[in-house]
Amino acid sequence: MVKQITVLSGKGGTGKTSLVGSLAALTKKTVMTDCDVDAPDLHLLLKPEILQTEELKASRVAVMDEEKCIQCGKCEELCRFNAIEKLVIDPVLCEGCGVCVYVCPVEAVELRETISGYAFISRTKYGSMSHARLNPGEENSGKLVSLVRQNAKKIAETENCELIINDGPPGIGCPVIAAVGGVDIGLIVVEPTLSGIHDMKRALGLLSHFKTPSLVCVNKYDINEENTDRIVEFCRSNGVEVVGKIPFDPLVTEAMVAGKSIVEYSPKSRVSEAIAELWKRTLKNI
Amino acid sequence: MIITVASGKGGTGKTTVAVNMALSLENVQLLDCDVEEPNSHILLQPRIHETKPVYTKFPVISEELCDYCGKCSAFCAYNALFVAPKTVMVFPELCHSCGGCALVCPKNAITEKERQIGTIKKGEAKGVEIVYGELNVGEAMSVPLIREVKKQIKNNKTVIIDAPPGTACSLVASVHNSDYCILVAEPTPFGLHDLEITVQVLKDLGVPMGVVINRAGLGDRKVYEYCEKETVPLLLEIPFSKQIAELYSRGIPFAVEMPEWKKKFQKILDKIER
Lengths: 286, 274
Hints:
The structure holds 2 protein chains of 2 kinds. By secondary structure, chain A is an alpha/beta fold.
């Protein structure tokens, strides 16, 4: 059985992708995914060569033929998304439900399929990668995440990989739920700020809601050690293991500017050592 | 005037900019539309005077009236209904509450019920009126809650909207109908990449925009070059500073401790109004 781990955070920008980029360099027989489909960044570190591209058509949008419209106003009256105003459809507000099409007595409205985004299967120097790109402003990020994970699973099976590491999106909503469903472990990256702690608690709540075992690692732990102690204490009293603490180091940004993970850029740095250590402890839980 | 603060990439400082700007202006209403992980209230510590649950509708099938014709599930664009030979399964978390299933049911067997998806809180702190939404943990859809938060907009105030990260539907719902969008970007490759996607969304929506560069001094110059090339105005630079990071970690808006910044945030509004 292929094991799966998702790196998440609740709050954005805590270092998920920088960590996952480093884990790619530390593991073998692993498929990497980027489940942050509307702001993906992992490819900037792993530089994938795209082998396959797949279109996801999951959205529909209502389009009105003004010449056929008899201005009865039924569509506007029944649209729950307030997407029709003075008989003009706002494609931004339209959720493609089809109520307007159904109630129109003269077939003046139709639904058109739109492309939600693209899923990619790629090769990197660390192994295969499954990722995607949601079209700007689109819905259905959850469906695209599910497609990324299905693709990763197929690759893992054909290539005999033992592990899938998912780089998760921020938040706790639709795409995050799609990124944590059925995984063996959720690893939360938290920064020792009050906002970070607040958001970590909600992310832990999400994992426990879906009965997913959780681990925590503190990034930039030394920017506020008092808050780091609070995180460790909170996790201890809730039975969550803190697998590591990563120090703040501008080298991480330097590595990113060079298009590399920190483990690759500066393998002997304190950050790289902390990541190697936390990964060892994470693997013991899988 | 409605100004949305957005970023694409998470953790670039949207909430920092939104809250500090709100504290620097007069007659302000701050709306936190990052309903999955709202943080504005952590920095503002408002006194909450109203809490109200937000509901969404979902279908309930009368087993007595239903003859399992399957028209409802065929109509549903979100796979929220599944009709088996002798039963109908409803998945409320997939339902967008369009009401279509009840419309198409030939037996009038479908009614709608409400369930809570989150909460709206209203409060006040340091002269700033704040409204924020909190999505229930485990709930997938944030857009209906974002729309409820935005219904609280007061037109006689300067409204600042703290948007969620990302470039998907929740950003669009937050920024829709805004007069201006402030993009907060980090001068790093990740920051640049996500800024480019967000600029695309805003161009598609036709919302004018400008950039605040946060943690200036880190990373490289590529974000600056991009803004110049795309003629997106640079509104403000906030330097990478240990003091600002430390204040943030303790939940303190830096313009409170460093009041000289209030003028700089006021100037952003001047630039926008011009």
